[in-house]
Write a structure and sequence with these properties.
By secondary structure, this protein is of the alpha/beta class.
Length: 335
C-alpha cells in the first residue's frame, strides 16, 4: 500500500514511533522505566555452625550459610552495588512458640552483629515471623488446632526488638497477624528504637509460589495450611484494606508478595498509597526461571531483567529478589 493512500488522521507518516527505537543510544535516552542495583534487596538464609555453605536444591545458586560464610556473600553483594539484604534464620532448636526467634544468640542476631561490625554500609533488614522457629511450622501460636492471633503479637514484638538490639536497620513482619505492625512499633518505640523503620508484608497471599522457600527455610506447616491468615489469591480490594491498616499502625514501607502473579495488586497499591512499595520476587518465580534456563528453554538474563523491569513498571520501588547478584552483574556489563 502506498503511503499516500493511508487515511489522513491516523498520525502516519508524521508520527513514526520507530524513530525512537533506531539505536541503542536513543532507546536508552527515552527509556521510561529503569532497573538499578539500588532497587534490589538480596534475601539470605543464615544457619548455625561455621564453614557451612550448602546449596539449596530447590533454589540453584542460593545457599544455607553460616555467619562466617554469610559475610563473604555480603562482601560480594556490596562489591556489586547491592547494598541491602534481608535475613532469614534457621535455628538449631524449634518449639511450639518459636522461642529461638528472639534468642540473642540466634543465627539472625549473630549475623546482624557480625555484618554491622564488618560491613556497616550494608543495610540489614530482618524477616520477622515464627514459621522458621516453630515445631509446627505455622507463623503464630497454635491453640486448639488453630493459629491464635493475639497471643502471637507479643512474640513477634520480642523477635523484632531482638533484631533491633542486635543492630538491624529495618524489620519486616511477614506473619500476617492482625495488629502486628502496631505491636512491633510500640515495642520498638518503648525501647528507644523509634527510628527503626518497619517494612510490612501487607498484601501477602496464600500462594503456591512459596514451595522452594519452605524447603529452604524448613518452614512448611506440619498440619493444615496458612489460608486462615494469608490472603486469598482472588482478592485485590482486600489488599488495599490490609495496606491501609498497616500504614495506620506505623508501617513505613508496604509489600506485595508474591510479585509476578500480583502485578495488578502492586499497581493498585502504588496508586492508592504515598509510602514506598516493595514486592517480593519469590522462590517459586526464581526456581521456574532457573529450571527453564538450565534446560535451555529460555534466555535467563533477558527473562529476569524483563520480569524485574515489569515489577518496577507496575509500581515497585523496591524488589526483594534472589536474582539480585546476577542482575547486578548484568547491569554492570550493560553500563
Amino acid at each position: 500500500m502506498a503511503v499516500e493512500s493511508i487515511r489522513v488522521g491516523t498520525g502516519f507518516p508524521v508520527q513514526r514511533p520507530r524513530r525512537l527505537r533506531a539505536s541503542e543510544t536513543i532507546r536508552r535516552l527515552v527509556q521510561e522505566t529503569r532497573l538499578g542495583t539500588d532497587d534490589l534487596i538480596y534475601p539470605l538464609f543464615v544457619v548455625p555452625g561455621t564453614g557451612v555453605r550448602e546449596e539449596i536444591d530447590a533454589m540453584p545458586g542460593q545457599y544455607h550459610l553460616s555467619v562466617d560464610m554469610l559475610l563473604r556473600r555480603v562482601e560480594e553483594s556490596l562489591g556489586l552495588g547491592v547494598r541491602a539484604c534481608i535475613l532469614f534464620g534457621i535455628p538449631e532448636h524449634k518449639d511450639a512458640t518459636g522461642s529461638s526467634a528472639f534468642d540473642p544468640q540466634g543465627p539472625v542476631q549473630r549475623a546482624i552483629r557480625e555484618i554491622k561490625a564488618r560491613f556497616p554500609e550494608m543495610y540489614v533488614i530482618t524477616d520477622v515471623c515464627l514459621c522458621e522457629y516453630t515445631d509446627h511450622g505455622h507463623c503464630g501460636v497454635v491453640q486448639d488446632g488453630r493459629v491464635a492471633n493475639d497471643p502471637t503479637l507479643d512474640l513477634l514484638a520480642r523477635e523484632a526488638l531482638s533484631h533491633a538490639e542486635a543492630g538491624a536497620d529495618m524489620v519486616a513482619p511477614s506473619d500476617m497477624m492482625d495488629g502486628r505492625v502496631a505491636a512491633i512499633r510500640k515495642a520498638l518505640d518503648e525501647n528507644g528504637f523509634e527510628e527503626i523503620p518497619i517494612m510490612a508484608y501487607s498484601a501477602k497471599y496464600a500462594s503456591a509460589y512459596y514451595g522452594p522457600f519452605r524447603v529452604a527455610a524448613q518452614s512448611a506447616p506440619r498440619f493444615g495450611d496458612r489460608r486462615s491468615y494469608q490472603m486469598d489469591p482472588p482478592n485485590a480490594r482486600e489488599a488495599l484494606k490490609e495496606v491501609e491498616l498497616d500504614i495506620a499502625e506505623g508501617a513505613d514501607i508496604v509489600m506485595v508478595k508474591p510479585a509476578l502473579a500480583y502485578l495488578d495488586v502492586l499497581w493498585r497499591v502504588k496508586e492508592a498509597t504515598k509510602v514506598p512499595v516493595a514486592c517480593y520476587n519469590v522462590s517459586g518465580e526464581y526456581a521456574m526461571v532457573k529450571a527453564a534456563a538450565q534446560r535451555g528453554w529460555i534466555d535467563e538474563r533477558r527473562v529476569v531483567l524483563e520480569t524485574l523491569t515489569g515489577m518496577k513498571r507496575a509500581g515497585a520501588d523496591l524488589i526483594l529478589t534472589y536474582h539480585a547478584l546476577d542482575v547486578a552483574r548484568w547491569l554492570r556489563e550493560d553500563a
